[in-house]
Amino acid sequence: MEAKKIMVCDDDQGVLDVIEMMLDSSGYTAFTEINSTNLISEIKKNQPDLILLDLWMPVLSGDQVVRAIRADQNISHLPVIILSASRDGDDIAMDAGADAFLSKPFDMDELIDTIEDLLKNKQGSISL
Questions:
Q1: The pTM is what?
Q2: Residue 59 lies in a domain
Q3: Would you tell me which of 40, 75, 102, 120 could form a disulfide with 106, CB atoms 3.0–4.6 Å apart?
């Protein structure tokens, strides 16, 4: 079975490195992007199964990116998990159309569980 691809976007290289390592060790293929303005084109190029996105980034914030994803027919179906240290990030993330929200610092097991739940729900019932 091919590994699920996850796109991670955060403006902190340390966060990207830790999440990428954790996803790789959990059997996922991780792609990272530090610049949110490149994210949509990277999503179209790499075709991930799920997106992990920091809420507070320079230039294009996470909620703006989620709105752009939801407005694009080709990628609007992708599950998006927003990560943020902000207490009101949950409301902002859900208003923008995110599928899940995790506050930083997050528990690695919780992150993997959330990813697995969203990927399972996205596939639904697949007929062979």
A1: 0.92
A2: yes
A3: 102
> Which CATH number fits the domain that encloses residue 87?
3.40.50.2300
- Residue 46 falls within a domain, yes or no? yes
pLDDT in tens, 71-123: 999 999 999 999 998 878 899 999 999 999 999 888 999 999 999 999 998 76
Q: How many degrees, rounded to 5, is the angle at CA 23 between CA 17 and CA 27?
A: 145
Q: What is the number of structural domains in the chain?
A: 1
Task: Provide the domain limits for residue 74.
Answer: 5-123
C-alpha–C-alpha distance, residues 8 and 16, integer Å: 7
C-alpha separations of 34 from 31, 54, 94, 124 in Å: 10, 10, 22, 31
DSSP calls for 6-75:
EEEE-S-HHHHHHHHHHHHHTT-EEEEES-GGGHHHHHHHH--SEEEEESS-SSS-HHHHHHHHHH-TTT
